[in-house]
Specification:
The protein has 154 residues and is of the alpha+beta class. It is 29% helix and 39% strand. It is built from four helices and seven strands; from the N terminus they run βααβββαβαββ. Strands 1-2-3-4-5-7-6 form a seven-stranded mixed β-sheet, sandwiched between helices. Helix 3 links the parallel strand 4 and strand 5. The longest helix is centred in the middle third of the chain and has 15 residues. The protein is globular. The termini are far apart. The relative contact order is 0.14.
Amino acid sequence: MSAVLKDAPQLLPMRESDLAEVMAIESAIYSHPWTRGSFADSIHAGYECRCLRLGAELLGYFVLMIAAQEAHLLNLSIAGPQQRRGHGSGLLREATDLARRLGARNVFLEVRPSNRGAQVLYTRFGFRAIGTRRGYYPAHSGREDALVLTLPLA
């Protein structure tokens, strides 16, 4: 009897050629998605932009900015049909491991108070709330605050 190995997802650098797929996911899962220009600017600025793929399928992506020994996770997203399958945890682990390898001592991020699923993921991973940014996010009824979370890496 032989074992059948499933393909494992691969983490690859995000390229401009990925942006149509990235935008399809971004537009499907967020009421106020990032723009294509925001992703392109992040790539051109040299931010750590990665795509998680299973074969040709884009499962998710992240954008991580690192400066002065601090990392800021600007975007971490998983395609709707792939959510709650462990991909978010895996992608978050990859992002924090990359930040650590590149010398960051802490990772910071913002999350909407209305995004309970993301809050559960981040809290389970060890992030803790350190503040609130008032009116940070656009929302259907004006603006929504952001919870600021951090994870020490050292």
